[in-house]
Design brief:
Layout lengths: L11 H37 L3 H19 L14 H5 L8 H11 L6 H6 L6 H10 L6 H4 L5 H24 L7 H5 L11 H28 L21 H17 L6 H5 L10 H20 L4 H6 L4 H29 L12
Length: 360
Amino acid sequence: MTAALSACSPPPEQQAIKGMVEHSILPAYRQFASAASDLYRQTNTFCEAPNAENYRATQEAWRQAVQGWSAIQFLQFGPLMIDNQSWKIQFWPDKKNLIARKTEALLASDDALDIARVDRASVVVQGLSAMEYLLFDTTGGQLTRYNSDSPRPCQALAAIAGHLQQVASRLNHAWQPELNNYAAKLLSPGADNDEYPSRQQVLVTLLDSLVYGVELIKRDKLERPLAIPGDGGFPQAYVLEWWRSQYSKEAVIANLQHLRTLYTAGQTFGIDDLIAHQQYADPPHQALAEAITNQFDAALNKLAAFDTSLFSAASSSSDPELRQALLNIHSDIDALLHLLEDDLPKAMGLSLSFNANDGD
């Protein structure tokens, strides 16, 4: 929590918007662009010398790019929503195993495998999902494949990485103040702003992002693949996000960490400070502000203590201790969602445009 605003400071709503944009959203887009660039560079290093060390380094660079994507995945507004940008980064869920089939079809074709070809291709063979197949799949992503006589697996890997780097760079450019400056739309609401005519509309958009992100974790990353609450369903490990790399849990942790950063504006003046500020809320909602922060921390602590992958947990659903640990994590996520979806909008005097119960 920051100190009280001085009398000459901007309105608390504007301070919160500025904090969230400058200390959460803009750094997240910069980091994702940087991680995608590092992944492209490492992929080219691997393809020049496809040995075990470079293979592992490329897998790690992919994980760092997933971390970067997890910081913006829930920001479902602005440039990310134009021309399927999010699908170009991640194709999920893949219930029909299209990634494997279409990636293998691309490899078997006579087409030149370059960035331009990937750009013309289906989103199924673009982005982090296709790269996960080529780096982690037990059949399609093994090191031996890159030591064969065919150069095409590495050509595809490098082309997909190069295309991802371009997508991430364009998104970053679209947001940054010194470039296309989409950030200015959030920072300067008003009658002449076609997307955000008021500060309230900006706050609704940011609040929607918090609710959407936690609902995405609860429903799509936990409940559906892990059969929670378990009313007759069965776990579906292959519906998990990033199941090939067994990186599902780490992506959920990254989501929650960055959702928390959005809420607190990176420990500057965020929504937590806004609802506790006497100039904004009468009476101030100090207890709610702290309850939400504490609930983020409770969920993160339980996930950190969960010492197996979600893929293994889905495959070992008969283990009662493991199952209870998952249910406890889910319970904390559910409690967090209720705070964000029910209590927080009331405290802010706002109505969500995203309805988690409808799955929009």
